[in-house]
Amino acid sequence: MKPHIRLGYAFAMLLVVAGMSACSHRTGGIMASTGGITRVDNSSVGSDVSISELKTRLIGGMMQGIATITSLDSTDLSLQYQFTWFDGSGFVIEGDSSSWTPLTLYGKQQVQVQAMAPANGAVSFEIYVREVFSQ
Predict the structure, then answer these.
(1) End-to-end distance of the chain based on CA atoms, in angstroms?
(2) Residue 79 needs a FRET pair 20 to 30 A away by CA distance; which of 27, 35, 48, 106 works?
(3) How far apart are CA 67 and CA 54, in angstroms?
(4) Could you tell me the residue ranges of all domains in the chain?
(5) 27-131 adopts what CATH topology?
(6) pLDDT tens for residues 53-101?
(7) In sequence order, what E strands does the chain have?
């Protein structure tokens, strides 16, 4: 292969890789569970947001989960959160039924969020919060 063709091929591959990385999303965030477990998958989100005061209650035989999400930053944050519900054996209840819910937190704001379990039998939940990045 001629050197100028190899150089052109290498440049084209570089553009493809750069284009693919521009489309990638950073989806890591933070998680808290009613079992007392907290996990930080993205240290930037972990330094900007906290999750606290996880509570449950029964309403008409269905479990409701409540959590407080707090901005630790003075700027506005575009976030999403998702509840995942577990039965008494630790299995996920209807894992695909919970969608991501958008949330904007203004500087140092705290918001209580809530969700209902998708079915009877829920005994605990996890809440996951991630930041939304515009492209």
Answers:
(1) 38
(2) 35
(3) 4
(4) 27-131
(5) Immunoglobulin-like (2.60.40)
(6) 999 999 999 999 999 999 999 999 999 999 999 999 999 998 777 789 9
(7) 29-33, 38-40, 49-59, 62-71, 77-87, 101-105, 110-116, 122-131
